[in-house]
Amino acid sequence: MPNMERKSKRTVISLEYQPGFDFDEAEQSPFFTFPEYQRNLVIPRIIAGLIDLAIVAAVYVVFMVTTSFEMPENFSPDRRVIGIYGVCYFTLVGIYFFLFMLSGSQTPGMKCQHLAVVNREEQPLDTRQACIRGFGYLISILPVLLGFLWMLIDPEHLTWADKVSGTYIKKL
Asked: Among residues 172, 158, 161, 48, which one has the least CA distance to residue 122?
């Protein structure tokens, strides 16, 4: 059997060349806080979300009616088929929000409520931020929309998508 001895190498880290923390500069830089009016946007955000979910549901009903005409005559949906339809609906919701964030930082529901998604500099989202927010929508939707309901108990009234992407909703 070959010799399995290992010689450990010792790593020495010198602290004399490490940069120090610049606390004076940190005290001078402004700290970002979400606008106080976020608390007043809970109801308009819920209304905007319901409008958006209704739009997606209307499109989805067209899909369901179309596919039901293509089913065999003796077909009866079971739990598996209903589950597939549910997953498809939530996938469509995610795509809907993601595409509207990419195209204009505003969904039709937000537009009706005069809301828009902005970054911390109050600018519309760039492609990277919209993609991150789209991921935030995905993780908000997967646990049965729990990430959206989170704004009801969050002290800053932000959803998981807001928190993940570092964005927030602004009243126009």
From this structure: 172
